[in-house]
Design a protein that fits this description.
Layout: H1 2-11, H2 13-33, H3 47-58, E1 69-75, H4 84-98, E2 103-108, H5 114-117, E3 127-134, H6 138-149, E4 159-163, H7 165-199, H8 202-226, H9 236-264, H10 269-296, H11 305-325, H12 327-335, H13 354-365, H14 367-382, H15 403-414, E5 421-428, H16 437-451, E6 456-460, H17 471-483, H18 493-502, E7 507-514, H19 521-532, E8 540-544, H20 546-580, H21 584-609, H22 614-617, H23 627-658, H24 661-691, H25 696-728, H26 737-746
Antiparallel strand pairs: 1-3, 1-4, 2-3, 5-7, 5-8, 6-7
Helix pairs in contact: 1-10, 2-8, 2-12, 6-7, 7-8, 7-9, 7-24, 8-9, 8-11, 9-10, 9-11, 9-24, 10-11, 10-20, 10-23, 13-24, 13-25, 14-21, 14-25, 16-17, 20-21, 20-23, 21-23, 21-25, 23-24, 23-25, 24-25
Length: 771
């Protein structure tokens, strides 16, 4: 099948080239013209989300703190907030916003009652906050927020920091775009340099970069088009570029190298292309399938932004395979022998791999002596993973110098009460909340119960706002409020606000305040105590807030991961069986992949959680975002199989001809080791370029992937693979007879083995010893 495709491309090269270019133009034209907006919306209906939705429906007039709003922090080195000059300077700064039709309202310390003014004034009295609400939804406001932020300019001795929901999201958008541009500018020149060193000719080096660029453009366009119809993560474009550049260049490198080998062997351009498609083209197709399978693991997290990242990654991998099998062979046909022109001195001798052959032979003479220490090194690298702590990322994933993060850090440090963490506990009465005396008594008892939860400093609700009131007083107060809401006017302003903000048609809300940070073990213990307590009779209790949402999301990841991991492993195993016809080699590949992934996870914890190299890499050590291991597993598993396919297909070629396992491993490494090393170097360069990112999630993924590829291309391919294959001997190629016959019948487009050559698992002659 693949050989026939090679012949077709040779004889229809202009048609195939035109079709490839038209496909690229169509995808790019439609995608970039109809692109949707990226966001990180989550649609999973876990408890905290249900509670939040219930609050929004029951209290529609209460603004969403994480929605279309932001905060401005004002600071002065000389003036106090109470000084008239401070107020005048602040009003001058805010005037352009007040006159902007997109701004709904602005609240300052001068608009609030004295009881609340202290919460928006710093401890030293020289800093204060202004709350700015936007009329439009969050997604629409993001499109013009930078215009509004630019209107905030320091004046009158006041410095300003814009922070809060919209500002943090805007900074993420800005830094992600900058990270993408920086990574592209760094990775493409390095890729060309490495390719020139591997191939030794400039023409051969430029072809993979061109195909990689085409795949990335099509992948990005497809992702933006996808965003028009569904939610797509703001991180998706970075992942598409990261994966797309890596795999497209690697696939093209494999095909170009095989084409040059065949030309060097004296074959015509047509024969060289036919063989390249039948071998390297087939390997690329299977590699693309294995990478797509890995990325498909993210589809097992429905409702999260991981799904969109898995789909976007699969799109760009598909583009890499398509252009690798169409655009690239048509260009190779046109280039012919010219692919070896413009030589780089001292580099690029096709087929040279003596080092790899010698290394394989050396390893196979002493397999256990090599295998055990190497496994020890990998397990040592993986050991920090046992200490992993996971927590949802927040504005601290931005670099320390980001404006919204600086403002948020100052707010948390200098303002009273900002270190508090709030749980919104919602008692939901589906049949309606009646404020009968019995019901008020039950709510009062529940409020007292919440106060006893660990680390709770107070509970704000309609039945707990004053310690001087007992059940009888709350019964009378709420009965009067039910009959005439205006009766609350005699209460203090805080009590009035609590009545309006905690009692609705179906719900009673308790705001449980603690002084423990949202990601701390103490806050998690408080959450468990609240959720474990008995609910008021007739009510369903739901808990939301930062800690609740974080834990619910983490639990979702932990709950869905076993199925996702099992799917990726099982389907990858089946695909590798279809490739090599053995049940042993796919198992070996899966186990070695898991080892390299574990080692990269250990490095991830060592660097980003424990903080090693934090100064050099400019980030704040913190718990690992739960999506990072998921993304890394799905990408690394596929990419590791990429190299496995490159290696096994070359080993299998030799084994089918000779039946000599040791010779097959040595020659397979000789033919593919240098290309795998070059491909890995390019992949590492691409990933490290993303490791220069300012956003911590992208930085962690880039460095984690680079580490995984480095381990896979060195310790795994150089030491573990040859030693394990030596120990397994002829067993490498074993399959039960029915499966061996099935594979021999199916073959999936593989070129027929030479007549009389041994088949995997069938009739292979005894393996000779290594002298």
């Amino acid at each position: 099948m693949f050989a026939a495709w090679g012949r077709f491309v040779f004889h229809r090269k202009w048609w195939v080239l035109a079709a490839s270019v038209l496909l690229l133009g169509a995808i790019a034209g439609v995608g970039f013209s109809l692109q949707g907006q990226l966001n990180n919306t989550t649609h999973v209906h876990f408890e905290s989300q249900r509670a939040s939705d219930l609050l929004n429906s029951q209290f529609p007039k209460v603004p969403d703190a994480g929605g279309s709003s932001f905060e401005i922090l004002f600071t002065s080195s000389k003036l106090s907030v109470s000084d008239p000059a401070y107020k005048a300077a602040m009003e001058k700064i805010l005037q352009p916003l007040r006159s902007d039709s997109r701004v709904k309202d602005i609240q300052t310390v001068y608009d609030l009652p004295a009881s609340k003014a202290t919460s928006v004034t710093s401890r030293n009295g020289k800093e204060t906050l202004a709350f700015v609400n936007i009329k439009d939804s969050r997604n629409k406001a993001r499109t013009y927020f930078s215009e509004i932020r630019d209107k905030v300019k320091p004046s009158g001795g006041l410095q300003t920091y814009v922070t809060g929901g919209l500002a943090i999201n805007s900074d993420f958008d800005t830094y992600l775009a900058d990270d993408l541009q920086r990574a592209e500018l760094a990775s493409i020149p390095f890729s060309i340099l490495f390719l020139a060193l591997v191939f030794g000719t400039l023409i051969a080096a430029l072809l993979p970069v061109g195909v990689g660029g085409a795949a990335v453009v099509a992948g990005v366009a497809g992702t933006l088009l996808l965003a028009r119809f569904t939610d797509v993560s703001t991180y998706a474009i970075n992942i598409v570029t990261l994966v797309g550049l890596g795999v497209a260049i690697d696939y093209s490198l494999l095909i170009v190298n095989r084409f040059r080998e065949e030309l060097l062997a004296g074959k015509s351009t047509e024969a060289a292309l036919e063989t390249s498609m039948a071998t390297a083209g087939r390997a690329v197709t299977f590699s693309g399938i294995t990478v797509a399978i890995g990325l498909a693991g993210m589809l097992f997290y429905p409702g999260t932004f991981l799904v969109s990242m898995g789909v976007a990654g699969s799109i760009v991998v598909a583009m890499a395979v398509i252009f690798g099998l169409t655009l690239l062979p048509s260009l190779l046909t046109l280039a012919g022998g010219a692919v070896n022109r413009i030589r780089v001195p001292w580099f690029g001798n096709v087929g040279s791999g003596g080092f790899w052959k010698s290394m394989a032979a050396w390893v196979m003479k002493r397999p256990l002596l090599v295998l055990l220490p190497t496994l020890g090194v990998i397990l040592l690298a993986a050991s920090p993973f046992l200490q992993i702590k996971v927590a949802n990322g927040d504005e601290h994933m931005l670099p320390p110098q980001a404006g919204s993060r600086v403002g948020g850090d100052l707010l948390a440090k200098n303002f009273p009460g900002q270190d508090q963490n709030t749980f919104a506990v919602v008692a939901n009465y589906r049949d309606g909340l009646s404020l009968s005396n019995d019901r008020v008594d039950q709510l009062y008892d529940y409020g007292q119960q919440l106060k006893k939860a660990p680390n709770v400093i107070r509970v704000d609700s309609a039945v707990t706002f004053s310690a001087d009131l007992g059940k009888a007083q709350y019964e009378a107060l709420l009965a009067a409020y039910k009959a005439n809401p205006a009766s609350a006017a005699a209460l203090p302003a805080d009590a009035q606000a609590l009545l309006k903000g905690t009692i609705a048609k179906n719900v009673a809300v308790f705001f449980v305040r603690t002084n423990q940070s949202s990601q701390s073990d103490a806050a998690i213990a408080t959450l468990k105590a609240i959720r474990g307590s008995a609910a008021p009779p007739g009510a369903e209790v739901l808990v939301t807030g930062s800690t609740a949402f974080n834990q619910d999301f983490i639990n979702l990841i932990l709950q869905d991961s076993p199925v996702a991991i099992a799917f990726v492993i099982l389907v990858t195993y089946l695909v590798l069986f279809l490739l090599v016809g053995s049940v042993v080699l796919p198992l070996k590949a899966v186990l070695t992949n898991l080892l390299s992934i574990s080692a990269s996870f250990g490095v991830l914890v060592f660097v980003f959680q424990q903080g090693h190299l934090s100064g050099l890499l400019n980030f704040t050590p913190q718990s690992i975002d739960p999506t990072v291991p998921v993304i890394m597993f799905c990408i690394v598993f596929g990419l590791s199989m990429d190299y496995e396919v490159m290696l096994l297909t070359r080993i299998q070629e030799v084994y089918r001809k000779t039946g000599d396992n040791a010779l097959a491993v040595a020659e397979g490494l000789e033919k593919s080791g240098r290309i795998i090393s070059g491909a890995a170097a390019i992949m590492i360069a691409v990933f490290l370029a993303f490791g220069l990112a300012q956003v911590l999630l992208i930085k962690a993924i880039g460095i984690g992937l680079a580490t995984a590829v480095l381990i896979d291309a060195t310790l795994m391919r150089m030491l573990i693979v040859p030693s394990v294959m030596r120990l397994l001997g002829r067993g490498n190629w074993w399959a039960p007879h029915p499966l061996a016959r099935f594979h021999g019948w199916l073959r999936l487009g593989e070129s027929d083995a030479r007549a009389g050559a041994p088949r995997p698992g069938v009739g292979a002659r005894p393996e000779p010893s290594i002298p």
